Amino acid sequence: MSYQRIMVGTDGSETAVRAVEAATRLAGRVGGVVQIVTAFGTGVDAETAKEVLRYAREAVRAQGVETKTHMKEGPPDPVITELALLHGADLIVVGNVGMGKAKRFRLGGIAEEIAHGAPCDVLIVHTREDRPEAGAYGRLLVATDGSATATEAARKGFELAELLGAEVRLVHVGDPLLGAVVLERTAKDRPGSAPVEGKTFEGDPADRIVEASGGGDVDLVVVGNKGLAGPRRYLLGSIPAKVAHASTVDVLIAKTVGRTTDDLEPGHGGLVDVEGRRVAVYKAEDGTLTALSPKCTHMGCTVDWNDGEQTWDCPCHGSRYRKEGAVFQGPAKRDLDPESLPG
């Protein structure tokens, strides 16, 4: 997880301003760029959109964070998702209300559509008057049922906790005996060394996750966009959707279905899905593929491709590897492990 390209949508509303604040704080912690988007023509005219962008840009730059701005005509949700795909966003940040009429519960219509259709992870920022610092995450709740997609979401949660110096409450809803095994395995295999406590619950998964995050000691809930023992609905499973609607804290929806080697351009690398495995792959100009384990050999965090430097970089502790996997900057001392590709 790198979150180097953080895209945030704003229409100048209170909840959108908080989304910009959260994106700025997160980008400042990980050294990322905030890409601010305002859609116009549907409730917001072009001149107002320019003013909204100017205000947001100045607010972000005042915190010493690099910004880029985008203004495009059209409804906000397709504009944001389209630009996120075009500019390779790692994360979309959006307020839970304010950008469009709310359909159900606490989640606004625009936030809901973005959560369903985003090409990357989505952070839904909740408007809370009792929390003055948007994006200040000291304690994360990470939900898992042991499935491959939930495990991928948990990995992202642990890596984010490592980056932020946060603690993790790991939650399983279902059979207590099975849950104890899942929690132990997930905690043991976690990347980094973030403090973790595990808890099991019985009942409706979404209800228990929301209840477990509502005691005032959790700042962010992390769920995958699939799985968690619920049926699938569009691109967002029913359990994550219900959590996003009902949560009183921010929710990070981790996209657990990635791209393939066909999506890589020659001369570039990236993390791809290979038969259910996440693999770090570099595609040479002649189409030759170099496949590597994405796990940093220092503490197991996931490396990400640095397109400018043509390297694999670990976001947790700064280790760096050449495109063929050779380590050249510590603290890692061992090269990335090779992986196999089908065919």
Low-confidence segments = 98-107, 227-236
Write the CATH fold name of the largest domain: Rossmann fold
The arrangement of helices and strands along the chain is: EHEHEHEEEHEEHEHEHEHEEEEEEEE
Q: Structural class of the helices, strands and pairings?
A: alpha/beta
This entry's quaternary arrangement is: single chain
Number of β-strand runs: 19
Distance between the termini: 28 Å
Radius of gyration: 19 Å
Strand order of the largest sheet: 3-2-1-4-7-12-11-8-9-10
CATH homology-level superfamily of the largest domain: HUPs
Mean pLDDT: 83
Strand content: 25-35%
Q: How many domain units?
A: 3
Largest sheet: 10 strands, mixed
Briefly summarize what is shown.
The longest helix has 17 residues, at 14-30. It contains 8 helices and 19 strands. α7 packs parallel to α8.
Written account of the structure:
- It is a single chain.
- The protein is an alpha/beta fold and 343 residues long.
- The protein has helices at 14-30, 46-61, 76-86, 109-117, 148-164, 176-188, 205-212, 238-246, and strands at residues 5-9, 33-40, 67-73, 91-95, 102-104, 107-108, 121-125, 139-143, 167-173, 196-201, 220-224, 250-254, 268-274, 277-283, 289-292, 304-306, 311-313, 320-322, 327-329.
- It folds into three domains: 5-125, HUPs (Rossmann fold, 3-Layer(aba) Sandwich); 139-254, 3-Layer(aba) Sandwich (Rossmann fold), CATH 3.40.50; 261-329, Rieske [2Fe-2S] iron-sulphur domain (Rieske Iron-sulfur Protein).
- Helices cover 29% and strands 27% of the residues.
- The chain has a ten-stranded mixed β-sheet, sandwiched between helices.
- It starts with a strand and ends in a 14-residue tail after the last strand.
